[in-house]
């Protein structure tokens, strides 16, 4: 089949009349079919008059083997995105083979019959692109974005994965990917607070043989038991063309691309059709209360999970709104009951999760330290009773729908966004045309719909009620709860099976009519750097802008230099707390009124603080730009300083500090910085302060900080999107009334180079993984040496194709990921190499870090430099695609005082850099003998081994990074 359609993703903003027309059409359809209504005109192969103005064109067709293909042309950037959805997730697995869809996703990034080992993971980044994949309960997705000259190589790689992969899989590859996936499970589930929550809920909610009875990542025992025969069976059953949708979007020629798709994908065998999944909703006869004593949690958490409806069901849209009404904002019933009145938690959350065959509605509260979850549960019940009694206003609903609509449009901002959404609609809703029905269903939710789904799915309905509490505080669990069945892995030294990959595997090659050897690159796309305009107000406020009219949206940020740098040493966290408080109302608006004013515009405005600045971030529709800027001015120049909100935010910050003590990565990061920088240096303190310093902050401290440090003379405004320079400058005229003296930013102490490496260790009993940090202080981001260090690091740890990732993950299977980077700061920026590794290979991983960094200069050859240049130069073709990337470019320029042409300067440096130049940078700034090493892990099993690294007995630290 071959049909052409038009729809609104490029200029998707609907007028009120069009929204109403679509909503009316949608309501009529959803009454006839409450699950996945597809517009009638799609079935007829045409488009309706009311949507003919939409201008995002795509072409959909189907190959003879059943592969569904969608093409979309967008020549705004010289890049191409490919997204392949295979309709197989954990819901297609068999009991006893859980986690297999996700495991197979990992397997699919290895070699295939015509694509050599490592090409998928290494070649695409080295061509200047990016690639990844993902698995969820209902599907697996593979996606890439490359400069358009590498488009043919994507066709080669992706078609070979779909049709010619299986014969190359051997036992060594199978075992390595098992270890990588198990490392991912440890990192995402076993070694983090509340990580087992979804496992407990799924086992309790869904019957044993229901497809949602297990998590996507599955059980370790099932994974370890997987065989080559299992892999082959899974591949033949589900990786067939008719069970997939391929979307290609970007700078392509439609006619030519159709021919290429037919060549590369057309001769893949059709395979047997995969039956469609039908809805399998579940019900609960009574509440099920379960608890888990969590090894890493520092705060008690309760979650209520109600059975709900599947994806695209008409009730799912109303449940989405219900979740927001209950939990988001000052008027939310859960917030008012749990946070404001009972003061049992710093925040609440609720969400609706509509999957392909069933859904859930969840309410989650992570309580304050020592909060009894019985009390939290009662507060939740009171909130639901209040919601039913008081209902909600039309203004609240309008605000939510405005935000949902804006978010919907932002979901189509990039080429990859478009490719993924078109594929998702095609594979799960029956056609890309469902985009119109989707936005119509979003905008047509009524008050009656929301109250109806509340009564149908939530009111007096049974739920799974889970209590996850610190392991030594069982008294906090909900009364009547029973112990959940959670199997904690025991990681033993030497327990993992060794594997040897065969790089010379012999296999029978599938005969093909088409030459499937590697295609050449086409012409290199020309880099087009967007025009930047600048201006300055009389009060000193600097303004930077880029006009980009591809979508009718605007992103902006206003940054005031200073941040935690200007905090009193005994009251660190003042700036961050002040920034949070600025979100809570203005002199003329209560917190609730401000929230409503922003929401009714469909906009976002948020003030935040970090170590070096205070930033107001904003997003808005272009038509609402002036109104949004007016609200930003009000927030900045007329803060409310509400005492009650101050106390709430301060308590929440103290709770977060306690919570972080169970997060191994946060512990490692804070302790590493404390040991890397001298006492008194801003980097040696946690962003947001410590329990002692935050406890000391008073509201008057906030006011004093604001009065002394918020000045236009150290502020920059950055604006990108569908708004002209003249319009921006006109909109900010009101900022001329802003005045103040420039604050003096304190000079930071110089970091002296170490004479020899130092090894530190922090005990986290029972840890399934060890967090490793290695690094040193280098140069400030404004220094001429900073960018050369970034370039030099590229082949060490910048992405999975670099040495750290290739060695620790691909060759050894020790980790899920390993990277190195330099964080840009105004002081001596930290160079950091880090990973989370399986506990029983902590020493071996440290030795790899040591070896790779110490020998990096000597092993960095001419081919490394060539790859680096290729990655950076060609990768720049993707640098200016989204508003966020453009905004980041402007922020970097203003923050570090870079020249107007700094992008061109960096491009020129990369092109001209020689091998000796890079070697000098490595020797000067990445000397391993000047680095510190830090491990957060299980001392009982690993501490004795640490001295074998060769850097003496490790120095023991507490979780705050202090010497023990």
TrEMBL record:
Belongs to the peptidase M16 family. Pfam families: Peptidase_M16, Peptidase_M16_C. It comes from Thalassomonas viridans. GO terms for molecular function: metal ion binding. Residues 226-402, 697-870 form the Peptidase M16 C-terminal domain. Residues 68-193, 550-661 form the Peptidase M16 N-terminal domain. The keyword Repeat does not apply. SUPFAM superfamilies: LuxS/MPP-like metallohydrolase (SSF63411). InterPro entries: Metalloenz_LuxS/M16, MPP/UQCRC_Complex, Pept_M16_N, Peptidase_M16_C. This is Insulinase family protein. Keywords: Signal. Residues 1-23 form the signal peptide. It comes from the Bacteria. PROSITE patterns: PROKAR_LIPOPROTEIN. The keyword Signal applies.
């Amino acid at each position: 089949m071959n049909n052409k359609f038009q729809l609104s993703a490029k200029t998707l903003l609907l007028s009120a009349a069009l929204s109403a027309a679509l909503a009316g059409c949608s309501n009529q359809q959803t009454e006839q079919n409450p699950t996945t209504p597809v517009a009638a005109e799609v079935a007829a192969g045409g488009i309706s008059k009311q949507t003919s103005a939409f201008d995002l064109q795509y072409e959909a067709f189907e190959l003879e083997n059943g592969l569904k293909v969608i093409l979309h042309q967008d020549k705004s950037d010289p890049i191409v995105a490919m997204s392949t959805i295979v309709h197989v997730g954990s819901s297609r697995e068999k009991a006893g083979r859980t986690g297999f869809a996700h495991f197979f996703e990992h397997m699919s990034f290895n070699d295939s019959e015509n694509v050599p080992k490592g090409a998928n993971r290494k070649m695409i980044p080295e061509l200047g692109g990016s690639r990844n994949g993902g698995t969820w309960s209902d599907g697996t997705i593979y996606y890439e974005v490359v400069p358009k000259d590498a488009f043919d190589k994507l066709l080669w790689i992706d078609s070979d994965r779909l049709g010619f992969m299986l014969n190359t899989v051997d036992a060594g590859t199978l075992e390595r990917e098992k270890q990588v996936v198990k490392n991912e499970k440890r990192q995402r589930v076993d070694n983090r607070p509340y990580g087992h929550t979804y496992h407990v809920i799924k086992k309790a909610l869904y019957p044993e043989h229901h497809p949602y009875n297990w998590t996507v990542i599955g059980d370790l025992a099932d994974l370890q038991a997987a065989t080559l025969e299992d892999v082959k069976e899974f591949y033949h059953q589900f990786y067939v063309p008719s069970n997939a949708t391929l979307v290609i979007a970007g700078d392509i020629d439609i006619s030519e691309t159709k021919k290429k798709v037919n060549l590369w994908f057309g001769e893949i065998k059709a395979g047997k059709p995969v039956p469609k999944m039908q809805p399998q909703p579940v019900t609960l006869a009574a509440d099920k209360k379960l608890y888990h004593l969590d090894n890493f949690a520092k705060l008690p958490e309760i979650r209520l999970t109600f059975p709900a409806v599947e994806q695209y069901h008409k009730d799912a849209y109303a449940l989405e709104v219900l979740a927001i009404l209950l939990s988001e904002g000052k008027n939310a019933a859960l917030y008012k009951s749990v946070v404001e009145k009972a003061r049992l938690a710093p925040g609440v959350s609720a969400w609706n999760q509509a999957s392909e065959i069933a859904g859930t509605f969840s309410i989650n509260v992570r309580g304050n330290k020592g909060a009894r979850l019985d009390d939290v549960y009662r507060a939740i019940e009171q909130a639901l009773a209040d919601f039913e009694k008081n209902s909600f206003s039309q203004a609240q609903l309008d605000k939510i729908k405005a935000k949902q609509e804006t978010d919907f449009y932002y979901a189509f901002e990039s080429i990859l966004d478009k490719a993924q959404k078109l594929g998702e609609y095609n594979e799960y809703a029956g056609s890309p045309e469902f985009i119109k029905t989707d936005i119509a269903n979003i905008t047509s939710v009524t008050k009656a719909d929301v109250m109806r789904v509340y009564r149908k799915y939530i009111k007096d309905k049974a739920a799974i009620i889970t209590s996850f509490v610190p392991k030594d505080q069982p008294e906090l669990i909900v009364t009547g709860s029973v112990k959940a069945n959670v199997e904690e892995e025991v990681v033993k030294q030497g327990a993992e099976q060794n594997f040897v990959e065969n790089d010379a595997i012999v296999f029978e090659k599938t005969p093909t009519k088409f030459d499937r050897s590697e295609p050449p690159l086409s012409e290199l796309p020309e880099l087009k750097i967007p025009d930047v305009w600048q201006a300055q107000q009389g009060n000193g406020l600097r303004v930077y802008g880029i006009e980009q009219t591809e979508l009718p949206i605007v992103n902006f940020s206003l940054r005031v230099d200073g941040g935690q740098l200007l905090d009193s040493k005994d009251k660190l966290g003042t700036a961050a707390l002040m920034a949070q408080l600025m979100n809570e109302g203005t002199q003329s608006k209560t917190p609730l009124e401000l929230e409503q004013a922003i929401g009714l515009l469909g906009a976002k405005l948020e003030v935040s603080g970090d170590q070096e600045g205070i930033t107001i971030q904003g997003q808005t529709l272009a038509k609402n730009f002036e109104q949004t800027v007016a609200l930003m001015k009000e927030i900045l120049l007329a803060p409310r300083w509400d005492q009650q909100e101050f106390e709430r935010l301060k308590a929440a910050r103290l709770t977060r500090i306690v919570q972080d003590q169970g997060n191994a990565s946060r512990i490692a990061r804070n302790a590493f910085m404390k040991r890397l920088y001298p006492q008194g240096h801003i980097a040696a303190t946690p962003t947001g302060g410590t329990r002692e310093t935050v406890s000391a902050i008073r509201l008057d401290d906030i006011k004093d900080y604001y009065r002394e440090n918020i000045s236009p003379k150290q502020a920059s405004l950055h604006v990108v999107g569908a708004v002209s320079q003249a319009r921006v400058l006109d909109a900010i005229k009101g900022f001329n009334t802003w005045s103040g003296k420039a604050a003096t930013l304190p000079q930071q102490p110089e970091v002296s180079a170490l004479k020899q490496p130092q090894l530190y260790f922090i005990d986290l009993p029972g840890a399934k993984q060890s967090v490793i940090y290695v690094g040193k202080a280098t140069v400030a981001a404004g220094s001429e040496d900073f960018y050369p260090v970034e370039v030099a690091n590229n082949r060490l740890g910048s992405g999975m194709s670099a040495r750290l990732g290739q060695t620790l993950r691909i060759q050894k299977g020790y980790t899920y990921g390993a990277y190195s980077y330099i964080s840009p700061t105004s002081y001596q920026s930290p160079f950091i190499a880090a990973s989370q590794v399986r506990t029983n290979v902590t020493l071996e991983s440290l030795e790899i870090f040591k070896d790779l960094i110490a020998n990096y200069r000597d092993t960095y050859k001419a081919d490394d430099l060539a790859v680096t240049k290729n990655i950076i130069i060609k990768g720049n073709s993707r640098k200016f695609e989204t508003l966020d990337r453009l905004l980041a470019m402007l922020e970097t320029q203003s923050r570090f005082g870079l020249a107007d042409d700094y992008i061109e300067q960096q491009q020129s440096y990369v092109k001209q850099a020689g091998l000796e130049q890079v070697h000098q940078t490595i020797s000067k700034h990445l000397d391993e003998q000047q680095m510190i090493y830090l491990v957060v892990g299980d001392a009982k099993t690993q501490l004795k081994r640490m001295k074998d690294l060769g850097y003496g007995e490790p120095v023991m630290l507490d979780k705050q990074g202090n010497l023990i």
